[in-house]
Amino acid sequence: MNALTIKALGFAVILILATIYVVTSMDIDLTDQVNAITMGGAISIAVITAYVTTKYIGQMKTDTATGELMEDNWDGIGERTNELPSGWAYTFLAVFFWSMWYGLVGYPVDQYSQIGEYNEAVLQHKEKYEKKFENATPEVLTNMGKSLYFVQCAPCHGNTGDGLSGKAQDLTKRMSKAQILDVIKNGSNQLKYPMGMMPPGMASGQDAEDIAEYIAGGLKGEAPAAYASCTSCHGADSKGNNGMSPDLTGYDNILMTQTLQHGKKGIIGEMPSFKTMITPIQTKALTAYIQSIAQ
Amino acid sequence: MFFHWLEKNPFYFALMISVVISFAGLLEIVPNFAQAARPLATEKPKTVLELAGKNIYVKDNCIACHSQMIRPFKSETDRYGKYSLSGEYAYDRPFLWGSKRTGPDLHRVGNYRTTDWHENHMLDPQAMVPGSIMPAYKHMFTNVADIESAYAEAVTVKNAFFTPYGPEFKRTRVAWEAHRPKVLADAKKIADDMKDEGVKKAIANGEVPEIVAMIAYLNSLK
């Protein structure tokens, strides 16, 4: 071991210590795999740099030219007939095979496209996603629904779901009295339930007031006599006859699905359709979340 | 031999290189570009009201904070909808891709926001989105949109770039006067979904407030 090697090793040790010092002072979590790999990379760069520098500086001091001098020369500058270094040759071969693989198999020039890669990634993700959340527990769904809600729903319905004082549907309640009166008066078929159009004017005057009061109050207590005309379609329990018509008691999965599919335009304003943005599993998650914030 | 001569004349050698590369570029890039930049079959040119809205979008510099370009990444398409295609911008003059996303992308905002939301949001963004740093655009409710210039723009792009506007788009005042009620009818349709009384009154008087043109434009972004 000559003096140069010792100097180089000292240099490498200083580099490594400096790296470790900087990393620890920056409070980087080394248990994180990516950070640990980066740290390992930094250390190996320091070691390789020290080794290569030592080797070649040492070689420059003692090395003499080998190989025959070629006859050809360029203005007196000659060239020796050395063998091609084996490292170069192997690297050349490796690059050759890699580029063949790249152009013909990995990213074929006539078949590869960025959009194609995107489509494949989305398809794969969808498959994985559907498998993972097929039988998700209610807590998982509620949490997923919550994060979805804050991206897609909160801009209109507000962070608490209260509809921002009447600017959108209040999701903590089913319907307000004014909304029910509007539907009774004008009918509705926006959610495209199998039962079809609810005809306008099913009740009027005091009857309509009573019905609206009863539904807006959460269907508690004695139902008014006029409510009988509602139960024929919405079911005796007001839960919508197993998906034939809207549930009047709360937000069930069918109501959520129909609303997200078709959108809705009521007296408050218009809600667009979200059918391209929200999948059935996400609908289930949103249902779970909205049921969890209902009063 | 020609190439011996070329190798001894660096200037002509460089010139020849650029000619060869340009020619290859011409063959490889131009046909592909011409194909992709063609308008999609479903793409329609903007109506006069929407064009007026686009001009307000430019004037109020919405592009400084909002992009109109959804990239093909899952994280973007989950939030904004399908990725953008170049054919969708074929009738945009100028295109409004933007490169800064202080606010969200707007290329498909018409799919997931509606007239009444925009009305509330332009008046007071923080009331809709807590913590939003978007300023309010109250002046849009009183300023009058320049629908006449928008009509002139439609006629100009029709004549200059063959944008497929109908035969009723002509360079005469008569043609504009004949088209004007259609613009006002479009505006009324938007205003019917709005709550602001001043806006409704202005349209009844034959004026289109900026907010109406703006909402028409935003709703057309699908």
From TrEMBL, chain A:
Cytochrome c domain segment(s): 140-294
Pfam families recorded: Cytochrome_CBB3, FixP_N
Single annotated GO MF: metal ion binding
Domain of life: Bacteria
Top EC class for this record: oxidoreductase
InterPro entries referenced in this protein's UniProt entry, alphabetically: CcoP_N (IPR032858), CcoP_N_sf (IPR038414), Cyt_c-like_dom (IPR009056), Cyt_c-like_dom_sf (IPR036909), Cytochrome_c_Oxidase_Subunit (IPR050597)
Protein name stated in the entry: Cytochrome c oxidase subunit CcoP (EC)
Automatic annotation (TrEMBL), chain B:
Any GO MF annotation of the entry: heme binding
Organism field: uncultured Sulfurovum sp
A Pfam family per the record: FixO
TM segment ranges: 12-30
Signal peptide, first to last residue: none
Keyword Amino-acid biosynthesis recorded: no
NCBIfam families, per database record: ccoO, PRK14487.1
Entry protein name: Cytochrome c oxidase subunit CcoO (EC)
EC number, UniProt record: 1.9.3.1
Domain of life the protein comes from: Bacteria
Cited InterPro entries: Cyt_c-like_dom (IPR009056), Cyt_c-like_dom_sf (IPR036909), Cyt_c_oxidase_monohaem-su/FixO (IPR003468)
Boundaries of every Cytochrome c domain copy: 48-222
Keywords: Heme, Iron, Membrane, Metal-binding, Oxidoreductase, Transmembrane, Transmembrane helix
